[in-house]
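TICKET #2291
ISSUE: user wants both folds in one file
ATTACHMENT 1:
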Amino acid sequence: MYNSRIIGMGKYLPDNVVTNDDLAKLMDTSDEWITERTGIKERRHIVKGSDDTPATMGHKAALIALERAGLQPKDIDLILFATLSPDYYFPGSGVLVQKLLGIPACPAMDIRMQCSGFIYGISTADQFIKTGMYKNVLVIGSENHSGGLDFTTRGRGVSVIFGDGAGAAVLTREEDNTRGILSTHLYSEGEHAEELSLIGPSTQRWVPEIIAANDPDDISYYPYMNGQTVFKHAVVRFSEVINEGLQKNNWEAADIDLFVPHQANLRIAQFIQKKFRLGDDQVYNNIMRYGNTTAASIPIALTEAWEEGKVKEGDKVVLAAFGSGFTWGSALMVW
């Protein structure tokens, strides 16, 4: 049985930078209010009418990852596309990336696990590679949040948090079982599914129904988040799934060379860092620059960490995420 190993990473962010002061012109908020609660200073948003979509951003990130991996698109055996904001209701964005890459025929699968999507994607790729079914797997996380946010005071609790962008990783076989992905750990708890959700439009609330109702107070088509509940569950589940991974691999927290959490909220990441007594050099955060990019946040952050020389061969790396569903997971690897 093989291990799988990341051999190439890439990222793409829209050019349009939106600062906290920019948002303060649209709603009753301030740089101080946003920074105190989230740690975010700015984020990237797609400009209306631009060519950026989840698929095109994912494609751009994938090309960088492929180049760094030393592979061509034709070498990819499977595409896994993690997103909560696909280009279309259907088909999925994975097949759109396949088209953009010029791959005539390979399986492409969308993963709808929101903030945990990249971890679920890494775990799925790992299993396909371990069984020998596929050799090279492309995992993408890509999101366009800005087109569907409520940029009024009513929606500020959600809208100030999210940004757009994409990250990608190429995984391949690794015959040395002491290297690559050592274990992944996935969970969900549907009891709390509506605490962080977008209810409409959906098959329960089709667009014609929403339009016909003509209800100015209907905000079901904007994301909803019970912030306090999400925070309380996140810090517990983050801790549990990280501990499970450490125990599985006989690691101590002090053994971690780099911890890359899902960039949900800087306060959550700082809580976990303190709980595991990790130094600043052991944790990578970039939410202050990009906001929460959901499925794209971990691959963007991991790409930047690699580009900055903060992860190198032989390092012990921990990835962990928590998000809507509720879903959560971790992945432990030796780089």
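ATTACHMENT 2:
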Amino acid sequence: MKLSSRLMTTAMALLLAAVPAIAAAEYPEKPVEIVVPFGAGDALDGAARVIAERLKDSLGVPFVVKNIPGAGGGKGTAEANKAARDGYTLLMGSTGALTARPLISDAGYRTDDFVPIAQLVEVPIGLAVAAESPYQSLADVVEAAKAGEGAVKYSTPGPGSTQHINMEIFAREMGVSMTHIGGRGGKGAVTKALSGEVDFVFVGASNYTSLAKAGKLRVLGVAADERVDYLPDAPTFKEQGFDYNVAVWFGLLTHSGVSEDIVASLRSEVAKVVDTDETRELYKKLNLNEAFLDGEAFQARIDENVQRHGVVLKEIGLIQ
């Protein structure tokens, strides 16, 4: 018996409507790439490797971390934006690269080119100097900055990074100006402080652990409510009279063009694997603070950061 044309059309429409659900049910069928827009060994890289390992165990396919450093996270984020919109390329996003860099120049992507899966962790930012530095406290740094316009130099992962923006906010609150030099990533920024190219470095506090223990770096302050376990001798900003808290967040995203079913599947799976003692233990080993936000809450935080960063970037002349 032949189907009428109307019946065939209806059947085809129903079949096409079912394709996204089928695709989501089968996803993932092959390895998934997680682009990390900074070098191996940074805190962002560590967070990506934790979630990659947990998703591999849960979904049964490899989740492969690919490091693409450069342009303060902009190069890797732009590369992730070029990939097919099929859910097989994810981005480990960080505050500055995702929310500030597209405001500064044509970065090859916009913030809304990506849809959030979940915020995963936070790392409080800390200020550190080389062991031989004359600065012994945050007050010393502020006083030195007051003594000479731009004379104090500091490094962060790059222009427009969260660390850069928030140090500029701190400097303005103190009524001083300082000279910023990008480090092409957190490790590069620390190296500039160790070499004496800059007076201090302002990156995620977890980057300082081994160097502080070895006596090569002195952490003058951590911008958190309480001292962190991995740097017990480092005072907070608040302890020194500076009411200032700031952290960098890391989260998983994919392209905004990816099917809603795949996005929903990823959100559900990530929420499941991070809510385990095993994941928390892995975070702890890397000195990462658990800070899970679901897709909707993560989007709200991203939107807030875009608005706030836009104001600061305009004030410091990075955007017109």
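RESOLUTION: both attachments delivered.
EXTRA DETAIL ON ATTACHMENT 2: The CA atoms of residues 2 and 8 lie 9 Å apart.
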